[in-house]
Design a protein that fits this description.
Low-confidence stretches: 128-132
Mean pLDDT: 94
Largest sheet: 9 strands, mixed
Order of helices and strands: EHEHEHEHHHEEEHEHEHHHHEE
Distance between the termini: 10 Å
Strand order of the largest sheet: 3-2-4-7-1-8-11-10-9
Strand content: 15-25%
Helix content: 25-40%
Shape: globular
Number of strands: 11
């Protein structure tokens, strides 16, 4: 299926603090913008896939959103793999079109945890609940500490990721947080849950984002102006809660990435720019290792000396990522990947022909990978 399907349109809302906005209204705005970007009307859409809002789950949310948009999709509904859901839904849309179940899909996500309900983020889950109010951040703190113990990873290594993402976000006029930091700033940022510093942690944001997915042939027939080919995708997931895992220093990016690279016929050395899920800096570092950009335990050396900053060997999260652009899980990374391939990004990587996008959910429970390219 390499290159047979495309992202035909992208759209999003403002990011940050948006009081009074419902998740439905944010989704509708993002979808309207994605359709306008593709230069198509909603009448061609016969599938609607949406990630459920994390902070306010609702029964039959997909149908509620379709009604608000005036759609009667043949296929769709709401899906939850945490932050991995957006890329996973894009792959579901591609497979549904390939199977003849639909012809054009909207894939979207919106949430309002900044001004709405945030209690869900601290609820105990599964077997981890026996430890009390075990937060997502606490799980990542355990993972980061274990990586430090096993591989000698230093705070400065993680600071290089925070510094890159904040530098890129500072150049993005749509970013929620536009404030570059130095490594000294990172080291001085207050500890949240040892060893997680404030600047290791992503933002909390309201907002919405959406993409239009269809076949390359249909995009040509409709005159879509800037369709971007999908070269590969993959998923991986674990059922183990953090405290029960046999290892804390490997992610499902190993499986997800292997699948996506095989479909695309590419290897890490072929990737020009990457949008790596950065809910915490340790997530980005371990994902780079598990995709094979470097060996396990060498992530700290890989991100050093500006390698992942604009102008480096592998520019990372060129619109700021979750650490700076918006804490919304995942779809904004896809949108920036599309912009890079189109040549329309604010911090454009010269000659960017391939872009890797990662999404991750839970506490490294789920992972999804998308590879985009300028040529099918």
């Amino acid at each position: 299926m390499r290159g047979k399907y495309v992202i035909a349109g992208i759209g999003h809302t403002r990011y940050g603090k948006l009081p009074g906005r419902s998740t439905v209204s944010l989704n509708v705005e993002a979808c309207r913008n994605a359709l306008a970007d593709a230069n198509v009307g909603k009448d061609i859409i016969d599938a609607l896939f949406v990630k459920v809002p994390t902070s306010a789950r609702e029964f039959m949310y997909g149908q509620k959103l379709a009604e608000a948009m005036g759609l009667r999709p043949k296929l769709g509904g709401a899906w939850d793999q945490g932050g991995a859901a957006n890329v996973a839904l894009i792959s579901q849309a591609v497979m549904a079109i390939e199977a003849g179940q639909c012809e054009a899909a909207l894939v979207c996500y919106a949430d309002n945890p900044r001004t709405g309900n945030r209690a869900v983020y601290a609820r105990p889950r599964g077997d981890d609940a026996v430890y009390g109010w075990f937060s997502t951040a606490a799980g990542y703190a355990m993972i980061q500490r274990r990586h430090m113990i096993e591989h000698g990873t230093r705070p400065e290594d993680l600071g290089a990721i925070a510094k890159a993402c904040r530098r890129h976000g500072a150049a993005n006029p749509n970013a929620q947080l536009r404030a570059a930091i130095s490594l000294d700033d990172y080291m001085a940022s207050p500890m949240q849950i040892d060893p997680l510093r404030r600047d290791d942690c992503c933002l909390v944001s309201d907002g919405g984002a959406a993409v239009v997915v269809m076949s390359a042939a249909r995009a040509r027939a409709l005159g879509v102006p800037n369709a971007v080919p999908i070269l590969g995708f993959g998923q991986g997931q674990t059922s183990w809660e953090v405290a029960q895992r046999p290892t804390l220093t490997s992610t499902e990016a190993v499986v997800s990435g292997r699948t996506a690279f095989a479909m695309a016929g590419l290897a890490p050395k072929d990737i020009d720019v990457a949008q790596i899920y950065d809910c915490f800096t340790i997530t980005a570092l371990m994902t780079l290792e598990d995709y094979g950009f470097c060996k396990k335990g060498e992530g700290g050396r890989f991100v050093a000396d500006g390698r992942i900053e604009a102008g480096g060997d592998l520019p990372l999260n060129t619109s700021g990522g979750l650490l700076s652009e918006t804490g919304m899980p995942g779809m904004q990374l896809v949108i920036e990947g599309v912009r890079q391939i189109r040549g329309q990004a604010t911090l454009q990587v010269p000659g960017a022909d391939t872009c890797l996008v990662s999404n991750q959910g839970g506490t490294m429970h789920t992972h999804s990978t998308l590879i985009l390219g300028s040529q099918p």
